[in-house]
Amino acid sequence: MAYEQLSDAVSHQLGALGASLRVQGSRVGLGELLTAHRALEAVDCTSREDARLALRAVLCSERGDLAKFERAFWEVFGDGRVPLGPSPFDDLSEEAREALPHAGVPATGPRPLEQEADPTAVPAAWSDVELLRHKDFATYTDLEMAAARELIARLARRGPTRVSRRTRPSRRRGHEPDLRRMVRGSLRTAGEPIERVWRAPSRRPRPLVLALDVSGSMTPYARMLLQYLHASVAARRRVEAFAFGTRLTRITHELGGRDHDRALERAAEAVVDFSGGTRIGAALAALNRDHGRRVGRGAVIVILSDGWDRGDPEVLALEMARLRRSAHRLVWLNPLAAHPEFAPLTRGMKTAIPHTDELLAGNSLASLEQLAVILEEI
Amino acid sequence: MSLTYVGSVEEASEALASQGYLAGRPLALAVHLAVALDQPLLLEGEAGVGKTEVARALAAATNARLIRLQCHEGIDVHHAVYDWDYPRQLLALRAAEGGVDEGQLFSRRFLLRRPLLDALEADPGEPVVLLIDEIDRADDEFEAFLLEFLADFAVTIPELGTISAARPPVVVLTSNRTRELHDALKRRCLYHWIDYPSAELERAIVHARIPGVSEAIASRVVTAVGRLREHGDLYKLPGVGETLVWARALLALGEDADLYETLGVALKVHEDVERVTQRGVLDGV
Question: How many other C-beta atoms lie within 10 A of the C-beta of residue B236?
């Protein structure tokens, strides 16, 4: 009993520690807290220093986290004085204990926590998602961004396919007879090939190249669209992701991995020209030259940009033409196109439109859904 | 010279050179390690820098048999390892009026051997260089299979059992990087990036590959190709292959032939040719 109470007390404090780290922007989830528990079991818990180091090893995952951890540790565990007398956790009710490990934020903490610490960002009902569908990305709150994540992930799974030279067994009378199965079948019928079986070509994912404009004018949309890029890289094979402003950065590797927040963080670090100027032509030139082998060969290329271009329009026209010739399809997603009075008047858009197969809005979940439909049809 | 004699970097370099393949030291070292460590060698590089030639030259220099598997989209085990000769099996079935049992039907008589099986079943006395060309064209599934194959040098044919190599072949893989290869496959291999050769080395290559070419032609072509590669604004850069064809072209046309007129042997994109001509990139060469 005493042990249980003690471990509850530890859970409580670890919960508080995690919450404090989250408030400071670190990413600490239930998994990390469980590991922290196991780490504490593995070290000598009576040593404050050992416990601190063990927790630090578990809860920090990059250099920037260390300072945050020290602050959180001090907040939760104080300056190291041991409380005397009966444990203050003795009078915790059963419900409180039940709640502690599940909730990211404990009901009572040693220190009042800010509102941002509220980790519930799951759509409560389908209607919430419905409301989000047509909402402009630029007006999203952080909470709505998190709520849309699931939907974006679902959309990202839908992409272009193509017919492969690989075949698979087919029931229908198809392209070529499946001799392998016919020989096998004939063995059962005394050498008489009675049953006819077929093989038909299968479908494979078609290469998809996503190039996202992260210049200043795209800032309201870049965060959500970057989520879409991440979800695509995570969900499908043969996806390449690029970000561009004044120069082009390949961020496929950075966006890889299941850990959503870390992927976006890595990508943001890799892109040096976030919220800067735009030279779309130069960026596409880099795409054509340095990554020509990736974008050629029947890839579908999606450019996500508002078309505000500060570069040379001739370069843009030339590179768009080249891209169009090497790609299977070229799709342009322009968040501004959602506006009813939108006309492609910016110099960049005017130059680019003759070379695009499709121009879509790309400012809301509904428009991403439209993209998914088009990609599937390609 | 046989494979066992590629015992040092110098010997690897000599072996390749004996076939007219002049390799820089890093490449010779990679080849030496591939032979010494029995590990596959993955070669990447721009088009036309001679990735495939490495395997050819190594095999020819060491009297090894070169077995080549050209990867393509949709390649699978039945293209790469073995298949059964189904039409003949069906004929045999009919001819025997059903009196054939399964063991006879799926015996070596009806087995079609593909390159990888050939490499495994090669005579231990006969060394083999296995070239797996353009692995990036194959799909992920085949890459996964290849990973297993390179780990054990064995394949299992359900009807015949497991076949493993008496002596693992020297394996050279090439990739054009149209897509990223899986990390696991890369980890299994030694890796070498073949860069464009230095001007000096490239001149030597021209002389080695085209007997009778004059120094004037060699240096002219190498300078021209160097300028194109440095230009930095072209879609497709000329490789060593293009250098050699260009030198042959000049040999046929005469030393003083106009480089702009023969630009088509080096550049294959219309915009590139136009740009180079307009900007006078090759003026004075």
Answer: 17
> Can you tell me which residue has the tokens 């989830």?
A29
DSSP strands (E only) in chain A: 161-170, 176-177, 198-205, 208-213, 239-244, 248-250, 300-304, 329-333, 358-360
Chain B: residues touching A (Cβ < 8 Å):
72-74, 76, 84, 86-87, 89-90, 93-94, 96-100, 102, 105, 139-140, 176-180, 233-236, 271
Tokens of B47: 């088009």
CA distance, residue B224 to nearest chain A CA (Å): 20
Residue A106: other Cβ atoms inside 10 A: 20
Q: How many CB atoms lie within 10 A of CB A141?
A: 9
The DSSP letter of residue B8 is: S
Nearest to A320 by CA among A370, A372, A369, A285: A285
Q: Which residue has the tokens 């180091």?
A: A53
Q: Are A279 and A309 in contact (CB under 8 A)?
A: yes
- Crossing angle for the helix pair A30-42 and A2-23, nearest 10 degrees? 130
- Partner-chain contact B98 A193, CB within 8 Å: no
The verdict on a CB contact (< 8 Å) between B74 and A183 is no
A265 is written with which tokens? 């963080």
- Compute CA distances A367 → A199, A338, B227, whole Å: 37, 9, 47
* Cα(A25)–Cα(A44) distance, integer angstroms: 29
For the sheet containing B65-70, what is the strand order? B65-70, B128-133, B170-175, B41-45, B190-194
CA distance A166 to chain B (A): 5
Q: Where are the beta strands (DSSP E) in A315-378?
A: 329-333, 358-360
Residues of B in contact with A297 (CB under 8 A): 178
φ, ψ (nearest 5 deg) of residue B42: -100, 120
- Per DSSP, A229 falls in state H
Query: Which residues of chain B make contact with A292, given a CB cutoff of 8 A?
Result: 235-236
If DSSP codes are grouped into helix, strand and coil, which group holds residue A202?
A: strand
Interface test with B, best of A167, A176, A180, A187 (most B CBs within 10 A): A187
Quick one: how far is CA A199 from the chain centroid?
37
Outline where chain B has alpha helix (H).
9-17, 25-37, 51-61, 77-80, 86-95, 102-105, 115-120, 140-152, 183-188, 199-209, 215-231, 240-253, 270-279
pTM for this entry: 0.71
Helix (H) or strand (E) holding A368: helix A365-377
Compute how many other C-beta atoms are within 10 angstroms of the C-beta atom of residue B42.
24
Sequence-separated (6 or more) residues with CB below 8 Å from residue B100? A187, A191, B92, B93
Full pLDDT tens readout for chain A, 378 residues: 445 666 777 888 888 888 888 887 777 777 778 777 777 776 666 777 777 777 877 777 666 677 788 888 888 887 665 444 444 455 566 556 555 444 333 334 344 444 444 444 444 445 566 677 788 888 888 888 888 888 888 899 898 988 888 888 887 776 788 888 888 888 877 777 777 888 888 888 899 999 999 988 888 888 889 989 999 998 888 899 999 988 899 998 888 877 788 888 888 888 877 778 888 999 999 998 888 777 767 899 999 998 888 888 888 998 998 888 888 899 999 988 888 777 777 788 888 888 999 888 888 888 899 899 999 887
**Residue carrying structure tokens 């001007």:** B199
